[in-house]
Amino acid sequence: MLVKVGVVGLFVIFGLSDANLLQGNSPRDLQMVHIVMRHGIRTPENTYPNDPHINNTLYPVGWGQLTNAGKLLQYDTGKFLRKRYNDFLGENYWPEQYYCQSTNVDRTKASVELTNAGLWPPSKIQQWGPLDWQPIPVTSLPLEEDNLLHYMVPCEEYERELEKVVKSEEVQKIYRDNEKLIKKLQDLTGKDIKTLADVQDVYSTLQSEKAFNLTLPKWTKDYFPEKMQYLSDFSYVITSYNDKLRRLKGGPLLKKILNDWKAKMDGTIEPKEIRAFLYGGHDYTIANLLGALKIFDPQTPGYGVAVLLELSKNQENEFVVQVFFRNDTSIPPYELTIPGCTKVCPLEKLIELTKNVIPSNFEAECKSDDPNYVPPEAGGP
């Protein structure tokens, strides 16, 4: 069971030696790293009809934007990455060696920029003026095209499969067992709550309002976070409930990472100097990637959590993979074990284990063969 931490637990940076962080229990030669993280602490993005803060402009921060605490969290994340990968990356930022991408959303782009500020303070030869900072380019795609990081990219077959999962006996039992709670939340919030995702949406609003020091309604003391936690957690489990869902959500990002690793192993990677990738996304980005690897422990991914996927060569010159999950800044990241493999998993073995969740053609696989199917409208991040 992975430890879940609250907002307070995200602010403590605990220093460990690079050797312990990077090498674990056996020497290895780090070859490439992919970092996938959720954005930092934000103000509420959504609200509900009975929210006492519904007309609050949240000036001067605004809705769905990073708070000052969120900015600090992401900057400290960059400093953590600098400490962890200092020897591997070197002190000079070089665009051929480092690539970063974010969803086309203010808070994720700002989070990546802040992480870059902590990771890449200008070296002596890269100092340019009065700021101890240097600009690092961040790539973003239109949300409707970003199937790597944006979880709401339209995909008809995914929605059809998700509907089947929701109608399954196991999931319906969860609805029945929590029917009174869901009805009570609907009455209290004034929101039409039909799905676990609707519960999660209210949970997320209350979580962000609390983090922004807004006073929550009195009724929340009886329901938030404890009584709502399980339903919120399970809403993330459902999105990667089976291999078809994993294939169409976390699959595209996992495919990109595996392809990078295969190209590195084959000597065909471009640019040949590339060492690290940083991806900035959302809670579902994290849940779907871990879900595709079948290592997602039911939880509501916290602000600023990160998955570190490291490709190395072992003493036998074999390419191996290790996956770490950082959801508590007071301790080292958790090393995860992919089912069917060991913690240090041979790349070839990982490719074999994940073949059923890697889409061959995402666009083609998303097309429904039901001419009468009407997909739901895509929501925001």
UniProtKB/TrEMBL annotation:
Residues 1-19 form the signal peptide. CDD domains: HP_HAP_like. One of its GO terms (molecular function) is acid phosphatase activity. It catalyses: a phosphate monoester + H2O = an alcohol + phosphate. InterPro entries: Acid_Pase_AS, His_Pase_clade-2, His_PPase_superfam, Histidine_acid_phosphatase. SUPFAM superfamilies: Phosphoglycerate mutase-like (SSF53254). Keywords: Signal. PANTHER family: ACID PHOSPHATASE-RELATED, GH28721P-RELATED. Belongs to the histidine acid phosphatase family. This is Uncharacterized protein.
